[in-house]
Each structure stands twice: as structure tokens, then as C-alpha cells.
Amino acid sequence: MSLIIESGKSDFIKANVSNSHNDAVAFEVKFAKDLTVAQLKSKLEILTGGCAGTMKVQIFKGDTCVSTLDNDDAKLGYYANCDGLRLHVIDSFATFSFDSAPVEKFELSKDQYEQRTDSVRNYLKQNRLGKYNEEEVQQAEEKRRLQAEEIQKRAELCVLGGRCEVTMPGNPTRRGTIRYNGQLDGKSGHFIGIEYDEPLGKNNGSIDGKAYFSCAQNYGGFVSPLSVTVGDFPPEDFNIDDEL
């Protein structure tokens, strides 16, 4: 299941909750920012029927996992410090061992699950939530369409060899030169490869052994076109004169 978080000055966080075990459905819930991760898992247990004790929660920025909520004592508001975060919740029903005797995983067939009246899916159907709310589905599709159009528009501006600034939440603004524009093997979405002016990147233009461009180590990075602003940005001068 996954949560898409919106952060702000409110004491609450609005989250679209969906359960991957029961289809990609979603409904909006508010969580207090002062909830601990353990308390959040308990609430998700009630909402989804998952197990808080085995639940794993990851933080995603777009399609990239940036962190894991592995500290049950931490406050939820501590993690929701930038817009667009997504919490990916995995209900881990792995086989457990007790006295060396494995306990088999309990599973329902699709037909058996459809017949249950106490399931999340039935609750969503009865209350016309998530994918069972036609208006919400249309709004979500329109939002995805507009974002895809904006990504395409920004990508077209990213000409190889052009100068740019890269702005991402939680990172300093970086300047560099555009070296790649396109897809990455094994990853979804469109990416812009940047050779930064300073060693503020994560690679040398290669990912998983494949070179998309070449630069010095830690001078390269790949980001969404939405993070790139193209313009006449000269290299920043970090030199300090000896004479004051």
C-alpha cells in the first residue's frame, strides 16, 4: 500500500491511502503530525487489515526510495518536511518460524476476497471512495496527464550542452551542464543527466554499470526534468582571495 503526503503549516497531514494487497485503491485520511511511526502503523492496521508488527514503511520521492521509517519512536511530522513525499507501506506477511516449525502464509483467492463484507474493498465500494469514486479517478487521471505534459515540455528545453540549475527539496541549488536527456534502463520516467560544476552529485554519469555520459566521480547526477531550470547560468566562483 502507499500514502501520498502533503505537508504544510497544519498540525495534520492529508494522506491518500491505498492497499496494494487489495488493488490500487485510495481514500483520503488525515494524520496528526505528532503521531509516532508506531502509532501510524497501528492506525494503518485498522484501515487496511495489515499487521503493524510486520509493516514496513518507506519514503519515496517520485519513483526513488529515499528513506525508511525504521524508528517507531520518531514523529510523523519529522519526515513530512517537503511537498510530494510518498510513504510506501509494505504489509509483510512472510512465513514465520516457531519452534523451528514454519507457519504457512494465509491467503484468500480473488473470488473469496470479493465475497467478504468486512474487506477494505467492500468498504470503499459502499462509500464510493478511491477508484470507486468516478470523480476522484478522473481528477487523478487529469493530474497525471498534466504532470506528464509538464515533464515533456521541460524535457524538450533540456538541450545537451546547455547550462542549468537543479533544485530539489532537501538539497542545495546546483549548477551544471546537461549531458543526457532520456530514459534509464530499469527505471520508469524521463531523466536529465547533469554534470555539476562542483562534486555535489552521486556518480560519474553511469548507473548500474551503464554509462550514459562521462564525468568525474561525484560530479554526475540524474534528475526529473521538473527539477531542472535551463538558462544562462555561469559556473559559480568558489575561490576566495588571499588578500582581504
From TrEMBL:
Cellular localization per UniProt: Cytoplasm
Pfam family, one: CAP_GLY
Stored SUPFAM superfamilies: Cap-Gly domain, Ubiquitin-like
SMART domains assigned to the protein according to its UniProt record, in alphabetical order: CAP_GLY (SM01052)
Recorded GO MF terms: alpha-tubulin binding; microtubule plus-end binding
Superkingdom of this protein's organism: Eukaryota
PROSITE patterns to which the protein is assigned, alphabetical: CAP_GLY_1, CAP_GLY_2
All copies of domain CAP-Gly, residue ranges: 182-224
GO biological process, any: cytoplasmic microtubule organization
Keywords assigned by UniProt, alphabetized: Chaperone, Cytoplasm
Keyword Protein transport: no
Gene Ontology cellular component terms for the protein in this record: cell cortex; cytosol; microtubule plus-end; nucleus
The family this protein is said to belong to: Belongs to the TBCB family.
The protein's name in its UniProt record: CAP-Gly domain-containing protein
